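Q: What would this chain look like folded?
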Amino acid sequence: MIDMLRNLALLFIGAALVNNILLTRFIGLCPFFGVSSAMETSVGMAGAVVFVMTLASSATWVFWNVLLEPLGVGDFLYIPAFILVIAALVQFVEMYLRKAMPGLYRAMGIYLPLITTNCAVLAAATEAVKPGFFKMNIAYGFGFGEAVVYTLGVAVGFGFALISFAALRERLDVAPVPKIMRGAPMAFVTAGLLSLGYVGLSGMFGI
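A: My prediction, written as C-alpha cells:
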C-alpha cells in the first residue's frame, strides 16, 4: 500500500513539475502566452484545464480499453476518436453546467469551450492510455487510477506554470523594462528563464 502511494505521488510530481507539459515539453503554449497577461484569466484557464483534462483523460482511457484496443483499431483511429470524445465531453459538461450550475458556468466563461482545441488536453489523454506516444524512455501502460493521477498532475503543472508566469508578467508590467523589450519580447525571455528552472528539476526523486 505504501509503495503504491509512493509511486502515485512520484507520478504526480513527475507529471506536474519534472516533466511539466508547458515548460519542459512545450505543448499547449498558445494559451500559455495568450491568457497569461492577467492573473484573473490565468486562474480561470488553469481551473478549466484541471477540470476538463482530468475528465477527458478518464473518458479516453475507458474508450481506448473498452472499444479501440479490443477491436484492434486503436493505432490508426485514436487521434480522431480522442478528439471526438474530448469535444463531445466538453459540450456535455458545458450544457450541464449551464443548466445545473450557472454560477460555475459563468465563472469558467469562454475557457471551457476553448479547452477543446488545446493540444495539451489531447497530449495528456494520449499519453495516459497509449504507451510511448512521445517516444520517451517511459513505457506508460497506466491503469485507470494511474492515468487519472498522471493527468491530474499534468493539469496541475499546467495551471501552476500558467499562474506563476502571469504573476511574473504582471510584475514586469510595472517594472522599469526598456521600451523595446516590453510586451512579447520580455514575455518570451521570462518564459525561457522560467523553463530553465523547471528543467533543473530533471532527475529529482529518480524521475
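The chain has one domain: 44-198.
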